[in-house]
Write a structure and sequence with these properties.
single chain, three-stranded mixed sheet, two-stranded antiparallel ribbon, globular
Length: 100
Amino acid sequence: MRVQLLYFDGCPSWQVADARLREALQTLGRPAEVEKVLVATPEEAEHWNFRGSPSVLVDGEDPFPQSRTPVGLTCRLYPTPEGLGGSPTVDQLVDVLSRA
């Protein structure tokens, strides 16, 4: 399983997403590295179909698709059981990673 965390430096939520991804992988007992991908230009955002920071890709797919969100260097929001958040919850990540 390949796990990537796409982010840009102006977003404060990517570190939270990184920690939650690592916790979710540990919970599942999956020995996967989280590859961090810095998206720094509009061209890179287009290349990655980057819908905001942080974005998680599992085997090249976004398990939290947001097709209505434009591609670009913005912060991303996720619907969580507690309301909108800057990162998926650990439980949401465990759910998507367990299906990969």
